[in-house]
Amino acid sequence: xxxxxxxxxxxxxxxxxxSIALLGGACSPSxxxxxxxxxxxxxRPSASPIPTAAAAPAGPSPCLTxxxxxxxxxSNGAAGTIYYPLDFTNASTSACTLYGYPGVAFVxxxxxxxxxxxAGRGSNTAPALVTLEPGATAHATLAVSDVLIGNNCLHxxxxxxxxxxxxxxxxxxxxxxLSRPGCADKSLVxxxxxxxxSGP
Length: 200
Hints:
Layout: H1 2-24, E1 61-62, E2 68-72, E3 76-78, E4 81-90, E5 96-98, E6 103-107, E7 114-115, E8 120-121, E9 130-132, E10 137-145, H2 146-152, E11 157-166, E12 174-183, E13 191-193, E14 197-198
Parallel strand pairs: 1-5, 8-13
Antiparallel strand pairs: 2-4, 3-4, 4-10, 5-9, 6-7, 6-11, 10-13, 10-14, 11-12
């Protein structure tokens, strides 16, 4: 019994040392820790750098109201409708663009109150981007129905002397002199304006 007890204690001690050896790391056959190998990884840059996309050159910006000068050309009429060319001249030193329909109304004075309904949109030509170089002119055609003013606006006819025009996509207006009969009835649309086109 005594010999067995001694043998058992030696086996427990050996197991304990083995557990410590496992926790401490692997051992070589001689009992010394095995050397640790170090691996160095080198990341080399790509032989050819990735090219970056070149920025596309910016085109002309939309014309601001302050870039433009408005004039009303000579009228011409047919079948009870009077047509007025609204000319936009680029008064700035840089090219700019116009696209779409201007907003048009008769007014009592420059910056004054609106007289009647604003012009509706009426054109057989689709909008197109117009580039205006400095000093160049584009136009839109305003058509005013004398028939509607004469026959349908009997009690609201007024004399107007000014027209107010908002260039496309702008929130401040230009004014120009235009004297003719108008209609103060805001429910009756008596004029239409076409899209801006290149040329005077």
